[in-house]
Structure formats: C-alpha cells, structure tokens
Specification:
46% helix
Amino acid sequence: MKTNETALDRVVRVVLGVVLLALVFVGPHTAWGWLGLVPLITGAVGFCPLYRVFRGSPGSATPACCGGSHHQGA
C-alpha cells in the first residue's frame, strides 16, 4: 500500500492517538478515548483513506476531484 501521509503528519497522528487512548486508562476513563485508535493506526501505517477522498496526497497541487490532466497549468 502506498503511503499518503508526510513524516510530520504521521508523528502528529501517533502522538494524538496515544494521548486520546490515555483518556481510557488514565484521567477521566472515558470511552471516547478509543477514537484514538484511528489516528494511531493511520499514523503507524502511513495511509489515510480520507486523504484520497478529500484532498489527494499531501503536497500535491492536484485537487482531489479527479486527478485528471485538465488541472495542469492551473
């Protein structure tokens, strides 16, 4: 699987995921912390499916609408 996250994006996701998961075991013990699995897994794998839907690859000038050649020179 091809990665579509930058190195900084991956680090931020992993840190955010760990912080959110800590809410389950430390502090308020809220179940909302389980949502931390999403950024943790996508950061560890390096692939976020929503990037393909909403904005393409990070750093690309091509909008996520299609990736067609009609965006060249725009």
